[in-house]
Amino acid sequence: MITYSFTNEDTLTNQLYEAIKNDITNGTLKDNEKLPSKRALAKHLNISTITVENAYMQLLSEGYIYSKPRSGYYVAHILHRPKRQTIPLIHEEKKEKMKIDFSSNATSPDHFPFTSWAKVSRYVLTNKQKQLLEPMPSQGLADLREAIALHLLDFKDMAVSPSQIIIGAGTEYLYGLLIQFFGFDVFYGLETPGYATLSHVYEAYHVTSIPLPIDHEGVKMSALYDSPVDILHVTPGHHFPTGITMPINRRVELLSWVNTSRYIIEDDYDSEFRMMGKPLPSLFSIDTTDHVIYMNTFTKTLSSTVRVSYMVLPVHLVEAFKKKLSFYNCSVSSFEQEILASFIQEGYFEKHINRMRTIYRRKRNEVLHLFTSHPLSSCSHISEENAGLHFLLTIDCAIDVNHFKEILKNHQIKIKSLSDYGGDPTPTFIINYSSLSLDDLPGAFDMMYDIIKEEQSRSSY
Protein backbone atom coordinates (compact mmCIF):
# COMPACT_ATOMS: atom_id res chain seq x y z
CA MET A 1 0.00 0.00 0.00
CA ILE A 2 1.38 3.40 -1.00
CA THR A 3 2.00 5.72 1.94
CA TYR A 4 2.35 9.51 2.03
CA SER A 5 2.62 12.17 4.72
CA PHE A 6 0.90 15.52 4.45
CA THR A 7 1.54 19.09 5.62
CA ASN A 8 -0.58 22.19 6.07
CA GLU A 9 1.03 24.02 3.12
CA ASP A 10 -1.53 22.90 0.50
CA THR A 11 -4.85 21.07 0.21
CA LEU A 12 -4.84 17.32 0.83
CA THR A 13 -6.16 16.75 -2.70
CA ASN A 14 -3.26 18.64 -4.30
CA GLN A 15 -0.69 16.95 -2.08
CA LEU A 16 -2.02 13.48 -2.87
CA TYR A 17 -2.22 14.26 -6.58
CA GLU A 18 1.38 15.53 -6.65
CA ALA A 19 2.67 12.57 -4.62
CA ILE A 20 1.11 9.94 -6.88
CA LYS A 21 2.12 11.83 -10.04
CA ASN A 22 5.75 12.02 -8.83
CA ASP A 23 5.76 8.28 -8.09
CA ILE A 24 4.48 7.60 -11.60
CA THR A 25 6.94 9.89 -13.41
CA ASN A 26 9.98 8.66 -11.46
CA GLY A 27 9.04 5.02 -11.95
CA THR A 28 8.19 4.13 -8.34
CA LEU A 29 4.73 3.14 -9.57
CA LYS A 30 5.14 0.85 -12.58
CA ASP A 31 3.20 0.84 -15.85
CA ASN A 32 -0.19 -0.89 -15.53
CA GLU A 33 0.23 -1.26 -11.76
CA LYS A 34 -3.14 -1.29 -10.01
CA LEU A 35 -3.77 1.55 -7.57
CA PRO A 36 -5.52 1.04 -4.24
CA SER A 37 -9.27 1.56 -4.29
CA LYS A 38 -10.50 4.95 -3.22
CA ARG A 39 -11.98 3.61 -0.01
CA ALA A 40 -8.88 1.53 0.89
CA LEU A 41 -6.42 4.39 0.25
CA ALA A 42 -8.59 6.83 2.17
CA LYS A 43 -8.70 4.51 5.17
CA HIS A 44 -4.93 3.82 4.97
CA LEU A 45 -4.00 7.51 4.81
CA ASN A 46 -6.72 8.59 7.24
CA ILE A 47 -8.27 11.03 4.76
CA SER A 48 -11.71 11.30 3.17
CA THR A 49 -12.79 9.24 0.16
CA ILE A 50 -13.72 12.48 -1.65
CA THR A 51 -10.09 13.65 -1.33
CA VAL A 52 -8.82 10.46 -2.97
CA GLU A 53 -11.51 10.58 -5.64
CA ASN A 54 -10.65 14.19 -6.58
CA ALA A 55 -6.93 13.36 -6.80
CA TYR A 56 -7.65 10.28 -8.96
CA MET A 57 -9.93 12.32 -11.26
CA GLN A 58 -7.21 14.90 -11.83
CA LEU A 59 -4.64 12.20 -12.59
CA LEU A 60 -7.14 10.51 -14.91
CA SER A 61 -7.88 13.73 -16.81
CA GLU A 62 -4.15 14.36 -17.34
CA GLY A 63 -3.49 10.81 -18.55
CA TYR A 64 -1.32 9.59 -15.68
CA ILE A 65 -3.77 6.77 -14.82
CA TYR A 66 -6.58 4.94 -16.58
CA SER A 67 -9.62 3.07 -15.33
CA LYS A 68 -11.12 -0.33 -16.05
CA PRO A 69 -14.84 -0.86 -15.49
CA ARG A 70 -15.52 -2.81 -12.30
CA SER A 71 -11.78 -3.18 -11.74
CA GLY A 72 -10.32 0.14 -10.61
CA TYR A 73 -7.50 2.50 -11.55
CA TYR A 74 -4.15 1.61 -13.13
CA VAL A 75 -0.90 3.44 -13.85
CA ALA A 76 -0.70 4.56 -17.48
CA HIS A 77 2.39 4.08 -19.63
CA ILE A 78 4.40 7.29 -19.30
CA LEU A 79 7.66 8.04 -21.08
CA HIS A 80 10.00 8.61 -18.16
CA ARG A 81 11.98 11.73 -18.78
CA PRO A 82 15.17 12.63 -16.93
CA LYS A 83 14.69 14.89 -13.98
CA ARG A 84 14.59 18.55 -14.87
CA GLN A 85 17.77 20.30 -13.90
CA THR A 86 17.55 23.26 -11.61
CA ILE A 87 17.01 26.33 -13.74
CA PRO A 88 19.60 29.00 -12.92
CA LEU A 89 18.20 32.31 -11.82
CA ILE A 90 18.60 34.81 -14.64
CA HIS A 91 19.19 38.33 -13.43
CA GLU A 92 17.95 41.09 -15.69
CA GLU A 93 20.64 43.56 -16.54
CA LYS A 94 20.00 46.72 -14.59
CA LYS A 95 20.16 49.95 -16.50
CA GLU A 96 23.09 51.99 -15.31
CA LYS A 97 21.80 54.97 -13.42
CA MET A 98 23.09 58.32 -14.60
CA LYS A 99 22.98 61.65 -12.86
CA ILE A 100 22.48 63.38 -16.22
CA ASP A 101 21.33 61.61 -19.39
CA PHE A 102 21.52 63.76 -22.51
CA SER A 103 20.30 60.81 -24.58
CA SER A 104 17.01 60.37 -22.71
CA ASN A 105 13.70 61.50 -24.21
CA ALA A 106 11.76 60.64 -21.05
CA THR A 107 8.95 62.86 -19.81
CA SER A 108 9.23 64.50 -16.42
CA PRO A 109 6.49 63.31 -14.01
CA ASP A 110 5.82 66.97 -13.30
CA HIS A 111 4.68 67.48 -16.88
CA PHE A 112 2.33 64.55 -17.49
CA PRO A 113 -1.36 65.64 -17.27
CA PHE A 114 -2.22 63.18 -14.49
CA THR A 115 -5.24 65.14 -13.24
CA SER A 116 -7.03 65.43 -16.58
CA TRP A 117 -5.97 61.89 -17.59
CA ALA A 118 -7.47 60.52 -14.36
CA LYS A 119 -10.66 62.52 -14.94
CA VAL A 120 -11.06 61.16 -18.46
CA SER A 121 -10.23 57.63 -17.27
CA ARG A 122 -12.99 57.75 -14.63
CA TYR A 123 -15.46 59.00 -17.22
CA VAL A 124 -14.57 56.23 -19.68
CA LEU A 125 -14.69 53.48 -17.04
CA THR A 126 -18.08 54.73 -15.82
CA ASN A 127 -19.81 55.58 -19.09
CA LYS A 128 -18.24 53.36 -21.74
CA GLN A 129 -18.22 49.96 -20.07
CA LYS A 130 -20.02 48.27 -22.97
CA GLN A 131 -17.68 49.75 -25.61
CA LEU A 132 -14.60 48.75 -23.60
CA LEU A 133 -15.49 45.07 -23.85
CA GLU A 134 -16.60 44.99 -27.48
CA PRO A 135 -14.30 43.67 -30.24
CA MET A 136 -12.67 46.49 -32.19
CA PRO A 137 -11.49 46.75 -35.79
CA SER A 138 -7.94 45.65 -36.57
CA GLN A 139 -7.16 49.26 -37.56
CA GLY A 140 -7.96 50.47 -34.06
CA LEU A 141 -10.89 52.05 -32.25
CA ALA A 142 -13.10 54.17 -34.51
CA ASP A 143 -13.41 56.92 -31.86
CA LEU A 144 -9.64 57.30 -31.63
CA ARG A 145 -9.13 57.28 -35.39
CA GLU A 146 -11.80 59.97 -35.73
CA ALA A 147 -10.15 62.05 -33.00
CA ILE A 148 -6.75 61.73 -34.69
CA ALA A 149 -8.23 62.73 -38.06
CA LEU A 150 -9.68 65.91 -36.54
CA HIS A 151 -6.40 66.66 -34.76
CA LEU A 152 -4.45 66.32 -38.02
CA LEU A 153 -6.89 68.62 -39.79
CA ASP A 154 -6.67 71.30 -37.09
CA PHE A 155 -2.95 71.06 -36.40
CA LYS A 156 -1.37 69.96 -39.69
CA ASP A 157 -4.06 70.92 -42.23
CA MET A 158 -4.19 67.26 -43.29
CA ALA A 159 -7.60 66.16 -44.58
CA VAL A 160 -7.71 62.41 -44.01
CA SER A 161 -10.43 59.85 -43.43
CA PRO A 162 -10.45 57.76 -40.20
CA SER A 163 -10.44 54.71 -42.48
CA GLN A 164 -6.91 55.63 -43.61
CA ILE A 165 -5.56 55.55 -40.04
CA ILE A 166 -3.93 52.47 -38.46
CA ILE A 167 -3.29 52.38 -34.69
CA GLY A 168 -0.38 50.39 -33.26
CA ALA A 169 1.71 49.93 -30.12
CA GLY A 170 4.72 51.99 -31.17
CA THR A 171 6.13 52.93 -34.55
CA GLU A 172 8.35 49.82 -34.61
CA TYR A 173 5.19 47.68 -34.69
CA LEU A 174 3.76 49.75 -37.55
CA TYR A 175 7.02 49.43 -39.51
CA GLY A 176 6.68 45.66 -39.11
CA LEU A 177 3.20 45.80 -40.61
CA LEU A 178 4.43 47.83 -43.57
CA ILE A 179 7.24 45.34 -44.22
CA GLN A 180 4.70 42.52 -44.30
CA PHE A 181 2.42 44.56 -46.54
CA PHE A 182 5.01 45.61 -49.14
CA GLY A 183 6.88 42.32 -49.04
CA PHE A 184 10.36 41.15 -48.15
CA ASP A 185 11.98 41.64 -51.55
CA VAL A 186 11.80 45.44 -51.68
CA PHE A 187 14.63 47.80 -50.71
CA TYR A 188 14.21 50.30 -47.87
CA GLY A 189 16.22 53.52 -47.73
CA LEU A 190 17.29 54.99 -44.39
CA GLU A 191 18.69 58.43 -43.64
CA THR A 192 22.24 58.11 -42.32
CA PRO A 193 22.85 59.10 -39.61
CA GLY A 194 19.39 58.17 -38.47
CA TYR A 195 17.11 56.34 -36.08
CA ALA A 196 19.17 53.24 -35.21
CA THR A 197 16.23 51.14 -34.01
CA LEU A 198 14.69 51.25 -37.47
CA SER A 199 17.60 49.43 -39.06
CA HIS A 200 17.27 46.76 -36.34
CA VAL A 201 13.59 46.33 -37.23
CA TYR A 202 14.41 45.77 -40.90
CA GLU A 203 17.22 43.41 -39.95
CA ALA A 204 14.88 41.40 -37.72
CA TYR A 205 12.52 40.94 -40.69
CA HIS A 206 15.43 39.96 -42.95
CA VAL A 207 14.79 42.73 -45.44
CA THR A 208 17.41 44.90 -47.11
CA SER A 209 17.85 48.45 -45.82
CA ILE A 210 20.22 50.82 -47.58
CA PRO A 211 21.89 53.71 -45.71
CA LEU A 212 21.63 56.98 -47.61
CA PRO A 213 23.84 59.97 -46.75
CA ILE A 214 22.31 63.33 -45.92
CA ASP A 215 23.45 66.89 -46.41
CA HIS A 216 22.25 70.11 -44.73
CA GLU A 217 18.84 69.76 -46.45
CA GLY A 218 18.14 66.04 -46.00
CA VAL A 219 18.68 62.89 -48.06
CA LYS A 220 21.11 63.47 -50.94
CA MET A 221 19.08 63.10 -54.12
CA SER A 222 22.04 61.84 -56.16
CA ALA A 223 22.57 58.98 -53.69
CA LEU A 224 18.85 58.20 -53.71
CA TYR A 225 18.64 58.02 -57.51
CA ASP A 226 21.77 55.86 -57.66
CA SER A 227 20.26 53.36 -55.20
CA PRO A 228 17.70 50.58 -55.80
CA VAL A 229 15.52 51.93 -52.96
CA ASP A 230 11.78 51.29 -53.34
CA ILE A 231 10.59 52.74 -50.02
CA LEU A 232 12.29 55.69 -48.36
CA HIS A 233 12.03 56.54 -44.66
CA VAL A 234 12.52 60.25 -43.85
CA THR A 235 12.02 62.68 -40.97
CA PRO A 236 11.60 65.98 -42.87
CA GLY A 237 10.06 67.99 -40.02
CA HIS A 238 12.97 67.45 -37.64
CA HIS A 239 15.61 64.97 -38.69
CA PHE A 240 16.88 62.65 -36.01
CA PRO A 241 19.57 63.01 -34.83
CA THR A 242 20.95 66.05 -36.73
CA GLY A 243 17.86 68.18 -36.09
CA ILE A 244 17.80 69.68 -39.60
CA THR A 245 14.49 70.70 -41.16
CA MET A 246 14.02 69.76 -44.79
CA PRO A 247 13.33 72.85 -46.95
CA ILE A 248 10.53 72.93 -49.51
CA ASN A 249 12.85 72.48 -52.51
CA ARG A 250 14.18 69.16 -51.19
CA ARG A 251 10.67 68.05 -50.30
CA VAL A 252 9.52 68.69 -53.86
CA GLU A 253 12.56 66.80 -55.16
CA LEU A 254 11.68 63.83 -52.96
CA LEU A 255 8.09 63.81 -54.17
CA SER A 256 9.30 63.88 -57.76
CA TRP A 257 11.31 60.70 -57.01
CA VAL A 258 8.23 58.59 -56.24
CA ASN A 259 6.41 56.72 -59.00
CA THR A 260 3.86 53.94 -59.26
CA SER A 261 6.04 51.52 -57.26
CA ARG A 262 7.96 53.84 -54.93
CA TYR A 263 6.75 55.16 -51.57
CA ILE A 264 7.92 57.51 -48.84
CA ILE A 265 7.36 56.86 -45.13
CA GLU A 266 7.24 60.25 -43.41
CA ASP A 267 8.01 60.02 -39.69
CA ASP A 268 6.73 63.23 -38.09
CA TYR A 269 7.68 62.14 -34.57
CA ASP A 270 7.91 65.51 -32.74
CA SER A 271 6.38 68.03 -35.12
CA GLU A 272 4.15 69.44 -32.37
CA PHE A 273 7.16 71.02 -30.69
CA ARG A 274 8.46 73.42 -33.29
CA MET A 275 9.74 76.34 -31.20
CA MET A 276 9.66 79.09 -33.81
CA GLY A 277 6.86 79.82 -36.26
CA LYS A 278 3.91 77.59 -36.98
CA PRO A 279 4.12 73.86 -37.70
CA LEU A 280 5.57 72.99 -41.09
CA PRO A 281 3.30 71.29 -43.64
CA SER A 282 3.87 67.57 -43.89
CA LEU A 283 5.07 65.80 -47.01
CA PHE A 284 1.76 63.95 -46.92
CA SER A 285 -0.22 67.18 -47.20
CA ILE A 286 1.67 68.46 -50.27
CA ASP A 287 1.91 65.09 -52.03
CA THR A 288 -0.14 64.93 -55.23
CA THR A 289 0.97 61.40 -56.11
CA ASP A 290 -0.70 59.73 -53.11
CA HIS A 291 2.50 57.83 -52.36
CA VAL A 292 3.41 59.13 -48.89
CA ILE A 293 2.64 57.18 -45.71
CA TYR A 294 2.44 59.48 -42.71
CA MET A 295 3.52 58.25 -39.28
CA ASN A 296 3.36 59.87 -35.84
CA THR A 297 3.32 58.92 -32.17
CA PHE A 298 2.04 60.06 -28.79
CA THR A 299 5.29 59.11 -27.05
CA LYS A 300 6.72 62.59 -27.57
CA THR A 301 3.63 64.63 -26.82
CA LEU A 302 2.43 62.63 -23.79
CA SER A 303 5.10 60.28 -22.49
CA SER A 304 7.70 57.85 -23.77
CA THR A 305 5.77 55.13 -21.90
CA VAL A 306 2.52 55.79 -23.80
CA ARG A 307 3.12 53.27 -26.55
CA VAL A 308 0.46 54.48 -28.99
CA SER A 309 1.40 55.40 -32.54
CA TYR A 310 -0.50 55.72 -35.80
CA MET A 311 0.05 55.86 -39.52
CA VAL A 312 -2.03 57.32 -42.33
CA LEU A 313 -2.14 55.27 -45.52
CA PRO A 314 -2.71 56.68 -49.01
CA VAL A 315 -6.33 56.10 -50.03
CA HIS A 316 -5.47 53.56 -52.72
CA LEU A 317 -3.64 51.32 -50.22
CA VAL A 318 -6.39 51.11 -47.58
CA GLU A 319 -8.40 48.20 -48.99
CA ALA A 320 -5.32 46.22 -50.00
CA PHE A 321 -3.87 46.69 -46.50
CA LYS A 322 -7.10 45.49 -44.88
CA LYS A 323 -7.32 42.49 -47.18
CA LYS A 324 -3.75 41.40 -46.44
CA LEU A 325 -3.33 42.21 -42.74
CA SER A 326 -6.76 42.57 -41.12
CA PHE A 327 -6.29 39.18 -39.43
CA TYR A 328 -4.09 40.99 -36.88
CA ASN A 329 -5.81 42.28 -33.77
CA CYS A 330 -4.96 45.86 -32.86
CA SER A 331 -1.97 45.83 -30.51
CA VAL A 332 -3.27 48.66 -28.27
CA SER A 333 -5.94 47.83 -25.67
CA SER A 334 -9.42 49.28 -26.09
CA PHE A 335 -9.14 50.79 -22.58
CA GLU A 336 -6.12 52.89 -23.56
CA GLN A 337 -7.62 53.85 -26.90
CA GLU A 338 -10.97 54.94 -25.42
CA ILE A 339 -9.21 57.10 -22.81
CA LEU A 340 -6.91 58.69 -25.39
CA ALA A 341 -9.83 59.32 -27.76
CA SER A 342 -11.81 61.12 -25.05
CA PHE A 343 -8.67 62.98 -23.98
CA ILE A 344 -8.34 64.38 -27.50
CA GLN A 345 -12.07 64.96 -28.10
CA GLU A 346 -12.53 66.91 -24.86
CA GLY A 347 -9.72 69.31 -25.77
CA TYR A 348 -7.26 68.14 -23.11
CA PHE A 349 -4.68 67.05 -25.67
CA GLU A 350 -4.55 70.43 -27.39
CA LYS A 351 -4.26 72.19 -24.02
CA HIS A 352 -1.48 69.83 -23.02
CA ILE A 353 0.48 70.44 -26.25
CA ASN A 354 0.17 74.21 -25.85
CA ARG A 355 1.28 73.96 -22.24
CA MET A 356 4.21 71.70 -23.05
CA ARG A 357 5.30 73.87 -25.95
CA THR A 358 5.52 76.81 -23.55
CA ILE A 359 7.38 74.71 -20.95
CA TYR A 360 9.84 73.29 -23.46
CA ARG A 361 10.44 76.67 -25.13
CA ARG A 362 11.23 78.16 -21.73
CA LYS A 363 13.44 75.22 -20.83
CA ARG A 364 15.26 75.37 -24.16
CA ASN A 365 15.92 79.08 -23.63
CA GLU A 366 17.25 78.41 -20.13
CA VAL A 367 19.55 75.66 -21.43
CA LEU A 368 20.82 77.95 -24.18
CA HIS A 369 21.37 80.78 -21.67
CA LEU A 370 23.33 78.46 -19.36
CA PHE A 371 25.45 77.41 -22.32
CA THR A 372 26.16 80.88 -23.74
CA SER A 373 27.13 82.18 -20.29
CA HIS A 374 29.48 79.24 -19.65
CA PRO A 375 33.14 79.01 -20.77
CA LEU A 376 32.14 75.88 -22.74
CA SER A 377 30.61 78.17 -25.36
CA SER A 378 34.09 79.54 -26.16
CA CYS A 379 35.18 76.18 -27.59
CA SER A 380 31.90 74.74 -28.89
CA HIS A 381 28.64 75.81 -30.49
CA ILE A 382 24.99 74.76 -30.61
CA SER A 383 22.90 74.24 -33.75
CA GLU A 384 19.44 73.06 -34.88
CA GLU A 385 17.79 74.33 -31.70
CA ASN A 386 14.55 75.70 -33.18
CA ALA A 387 12.55 72.49 -33.56
CA GLY A 388 11.90 69.39 -31.52
CA LEU A 389 13.28 68.46 -28.13
CA HIS A 390 16.94 68.04 -28.94
CA PHE A 391 19.74 70.01 -30.56
CA LEU A 392 23.40 69.52 -31.43
CA LEU A 393 26.50 70.49 -29.47
CA THR A 394 29.66 70.59 -31.60
CA ILE A 395 33.15 70.89 -30.12
CA ASP A 396 35.22 73.36 -32.17
CA CYS A 397 38.48 71.49 -31.79
CA ALA A 398 39.70 67.96 -32.42
CA ILE A 399 38.99 65.58 -29.55
CA ASP A 400 38.72 61.84 -29.09
CA VAL A 401 34.93 61.37 -29.18
CA ASN A 402 34.92 57.99 -27.45
CA HIS A 403 37.33 59.19 -24.75
CA PHE A 404 35.13 62.24 -24.19
CA LYS A 405 32.02 60.08 -23.72
CA GLU A 406 33.83 57.58 -21.49
CA ILE A 407 35.08 60.23 -19.06
CA LEU A 408 31.62 61.75 -18.84
CA LYS A 409 30.15 58.29 -18.23
CA ASN A 410 32.58 57.76 -15.35
CA HIS A 411 31.06 60.88 -13.81
CA GLN A 412 27.51 59.58 -14.37
CA ILE A 413 26.87 61.75 -17.41
CA LYS A 414 25.58 59.97 -20.52
CA ILE A 415 25.81 61.55 -23.94
CA LYS A 416 25.66 60.24 -27.51
CA SER A 417 27.40 61.48 -30.63
CA LEU A 418 26.31 61.49 -34.25
CA SER A 419 28.63 58.53 -34.82
CA ASP A 420 26.40 56.46 -32.50
CA TYR A 421 23.68 56.83 -35.16
CA GLY A 422 25.84 56.10 -38.19
CA GLY A 423 27.27 59.57 -38.68
CA ASP A 424 30.87 60.65 -39.15
CA PRO A 425 33.13 60.46 -36.07
CA THR A 426 33.05 64.22 -35.59
CA PRO A 427 32.81 65.78 -32.10
CA THR A 428 29.10 66.53 -32.45
CA PHE A 429 26.79 65.42 -29.66
CA ILE A 430 23.02 65.19 -29.21
CA ILE A 431 21.47 67.14 -26.34
CA ASN A 432 17.98 65.93 -25.42
CA TYR A 433 16.63 68.45 -22.94
CA SER A 434 13.06 67.27 -22.23
CA SER A 435 14.00 65.49 -18.99
CA LEU A 436 17.13 67.44 -18.01
CA SER A 437 17.48 68.93 -14.55
CA LEU A 438 18.69 72.49 -15.03
CA ASP A 439 20.31 72.43 -11.59
CA ASP A 440 22.72 69.71 -12.75
CA LEU A 441 23.54 71.31 -16.09
CA PRO A 442 26.31 73.74 -15.01
CA GLY A 443 28.21 70.84 -13.45
CA ALA A 444 27.93 68.85 -16.67
CA PHE A 445 29.15 71.84 -18.69
CA ASP A 446 32.08 72.23 -16.24
CA MET A 447 33.07 68.61 -16.80
CA MET A 448 32.85 68.94 -20.61
CA TYR A 449 34.93 72.11 -20.56
CA ASP A 450 37.60 70.52 -18.36
CA ILE A 451 37.88 67.49 -20.66
CA ILE A 452 38.26 69.70 -23.74
CA LYS A 453 40.94 71.84 -22.10
CA GLU A 454 42.80 68.73 -20.96
CA GLU A 455 42.66 67.33 -24.52
CA GLN A 456 43.94 70.62 -25.94
CA SER A 457 46.73 70.73 -23.39
CA ARG A 458 47.76 67.16 -24.19
CA SER A 459 47.76 67.78 -27.95
CA SER A 460 49.95 70.88 -27.59
CA TYR A 461 52.87 68.77 -26.34
Instruction: State the name of the first-level CATH class of the largest domain.
Output: Alpha Beta
What spatial order of strands do you see in the largest sheet? 4-11-10-9-8-5-6-7
Rg, alpha carbons: 31 Å
Q: What name does CATH use for the topology of the largest domain? A: Aspartate Aminotransferase, domain 2
CATH superfamily of the largest domain: Type I PLP-dependent aspartate aminotransferase-like (Major domain)
Low-pLDDT residue spans: none
Largest sheet: 8 strands, mixed
Tally of structural domains: 3
Describe the model.
Helix content is 40%, strand content 15%. Strands 4-11-10-9-8-5-6-7 form an eight-stranded mixed beta sheet. Strands 12-13-16-15 form a four-stranded antiparallel beta sheet, with no helix packed on it. Strands 1-2 form a two-stranded antiparallel ribbon. It is an alpha/beta fold and 461 residues long. Helix 8 links the parallel strand 5 (187-192) and strand 6 (208-215). The mean pLDDT is 90. It is elongated and about 90 Å long. The chain has three domains: 12-75, Winged helix-like DNA-binding domain superfamily/Winged helix DNA-binding domain (Arc Repressor Mutant, subunit A, Orthogonal Bundle), CATH 1.10.10.10; 114-346, Aspartate Aminotransferase, domain 2 (3-Layer(aba) Sandwich), CATH 3.40.640.10; 352-459, Aspartate Aminotransferase, domain 1, CATH 3.90.1150.10. The relative contact order is 0.12. The longest helix is centred in the last third of the chain and has 25 residues, at 348-372. InterPro entries: HTH_trans_reg/aminotransferase, PyrdxlP-dep_Trfase, PyrdxlP-dep_Trfase_major, Tscrpt_reg_HTH_GntR, WH-like_DNA-bd_sf, WH_DNA-bd_sf. Pfam families: GntR (PF00392). It comes from Intestinibaculum porci. This is GntR family transcriptional regulator.
